[in-house]
Amino acid sequence: MKLKKSDIRSMPKVMIHEHLDCSVRPQTMLELWEKVGFGKCAFPFPSDLISKWQASSKLSGSAQKRARQAVAVQYQDYIADFATESLANYIKAIVDHILPVMQTHEQLVRITKERIDDAVADGIIAMELRFAPQLHTMGGMTLTQVMDAVVEGLKDSPIPVKLIVCTLRHENAEMASKLAALALQYKDVVGVFDLAADEEANPGVLDWWLQEAVKVREQSDYSIKLTIHLNETRAATDGERDTLKKYRIKRIGHGIKDDWPTVLELCPTSNVVTGQVKSYGDHPINRFFNEGKKVTVNTDGTLLTKVQLSDEYYKLNRQFGWTALQFLLCNLNALEASSFSFKQKQALRATLIAEYSALIG
Ligand SMILES: [Zn+2]
């Protein structure tokens, strides 16, 4: 059964794997870069793009709106195309184009608010949003100022949102310890502690992260859960499997290169973009689902993948024939694995079951 895009958008969805810095609106980036100065970007904007953007400021009303939207589409295509060429390019796109405009209180509040607005418009009814606070201190903000800005961005959110603090693989015990303290300080809003970034360069369940992660979980009385980006580019070793088991780490970000029987935060389009699978049809998500694994569907980020969550559902419908039943089960998996409170989960579960039951008939 082919589902309509508009119907998919209105389906309720729970998402547990998306990076804030990979989900900025392209138009917002252009507006922020204009203030910072396009010339300050370490990897240059195409000159025709800047001239079109500048020409749009001479227009007004709906003509300006249309012109700016067109430039934003061109800009998103430009950095997304660049990012898809290699993992190095993907990271360069984030470092040079995205992070420089996420360094002030106002920028972070705005970007967070806009992400929630877009998620709500896309049918998301609860989400966990992840970011690495330490990447937003280049403009002089402290880690707590960064957290305060993101928390302010969430203030009027109509949906429950929990934050995930990401430690990065190329960092060290000292940074992990600072981030652990930060997560505990903000444990009302931080639901999960993660390890992210380049798995090829620093593979495995890194010991310095694990020590801090286990501490955060215990000291938060288990309100803060753990997840780890793993098996995105390489299969797990026996030692890693044993570690995950021993420390009861029940969520894995991506996990496409292994048969690990745990909650999988899958992001199919992202894996195509970074070249981990050849095409959408080659992605193991359908096989994992049919094998009974705890599959969840996520974007990883909306900017470089050019997908909102409903686009991901649309692709699953067209590629693998997924319909409301599969989506309901994946949403229930995400909800169960999430860090929302018992009460929030109860209400969200009731909404999911009621709305999908009507669709399943
Ligand atoms: Zn990720």
How would you concisely characterize the structure shown here?
The chain has 2 domains: 275 residues, TIM Barrel (Alpha-Beta Barrel); 71 residues, no CATH class.
Uncertain ranges: none
CATH architecture of the largest domain: Alpha-Beta Barrel
Ligands present: zinc ion
Biggest beta sheet attributes: 5 strands, parallel
Number of E-state strands:
9
Corresponding CATH superfamily of the largest domain = Metal-dependent hydrolases
Distance between the termini: 14 Å
| Global shape | globular
Q: Cα-atom Rg, whole angstroms?
A: 20 Å
- Report the helical percentage: 40-55%
Strand content: 5-15%
Written description of the protein model:
This protein is an alpha/beta fold. It has 2 domains: 5-23 and 105-360, TIM Barrel (Alpha-Beta Barrel); 26-96, no CATH class. 51% of the residues lie in helices and 12% in strands. The strands form 2 sheets. The chain has a 5-stranded parallel sheet. A 4-stranded parallel sheet has the order 6-7-8-9. The protein is globular. It binds zinc ion (ZN). The site of zinc ion has 6 residues, from loops.
Task: Set out the fold topology.
Blueprint: H1 5-10, E1 13-15, H2 26-36, H3 47-56, H4 61-84, H5 87-98, H6 105-121, E2 124-131, H7 143-154, E3 161-168, H8 173-185, E4 190-196, H9 207-219, E5 225-226, E6 228-230, H10 238-246, E7 251-254, E8 263-266, H11 268-273, H12 285-290, E9 294-297, H13 309-320, H14 324-337, H15 342-360
Parallel strand pairs: 1-2, 2-3, 3-4, 4-5, 6-7, 7-8, 8-9
Bound molecules: zinc ion (ZN).
Residues 17, 19, 196, 229, 253, 300 line the site of zinc ion.
